[in-house]
Structures are given as C-alpha cells and as structure tokens.
Amino acid sequence: MTETEKKRGRPKTEHDAPASVRPKVKGLTKVFDAAAAAAGSNRSQITEELWAWFARVPGATLPPRPDRQPGAEAVKKPQRPT
C-alpha cells in the first residue's frame, strides 16, 4: 500500500475499548443495582470508583457501602479456581 492510498474501514479513534463486566454469580446484578441505588449512585459510577481504587489511582477512595439489602443473603459465591 502506498502512502497516497486510503485505508479501508473507519478511522481509529482516541477512545479506549469499552469494558464489559458481567458477574458469574446469578442474581448479583440485581442486588448490586439495589445497593447502588440505596447509596445514591449507579452501577457504572460504583464500578468506576472500584476500578480506580483497585488500580491505586491517586485520590481514589472506596465508594460508600449501604446497609445490607434484602436478597443479599441469597447470593452464593462460586468456588475460586485453585
């Protein structure tokens, strides 16, 4: 390909690839959304704050946790692979 030929397809953007996080624990999304709403937030905002805290971004703090929500006891964590 010469320098004068155009490349096919859409031009690249400066944006990062979208991240998709899907829990493997059945029912966790519903409980998480209820807890986020009780904390006055939403799933995206809480997830973003957790990622920043985990990556040790300067100034990042853990989001506030609400009191235990109804249905939270029904969620069972899967076994961790060894």
Can you describe this structure in just a few lines?
Helices cover 28% and strands 0% of the residues. It is mainly alpha-helical and 82 residues long. The model has no long low-confidence stretch (mean pLDDT 79).
Q: What structural class do the secondary elements suggest?
A: mainly alpha
Strand fraction equals under 5%
Oligomer description: single chain
Question: How do the helices and strands follow one another from N- to C-terminus?
Answer: HH
Low-confidence stretches: none
How many beta strands in the DSSP annotation?
0
Shape: elongated
Helix content: 25-40%
Average pLDDT, to the nearest integer?
A: 79
Terminal CA distance reads 49 Å
The major sheet is characterized as: none
* Alpha-carbon Rg, integer: 20 Å
The helix count comes to 2
Structure description:
By secondary structure, the protein is mostly helical. Helices cover 28% and strands 0% of the residues. The protein is elongated and about 65 Å long. The model has no long low-confidence stretch (mean pLDDT 79).
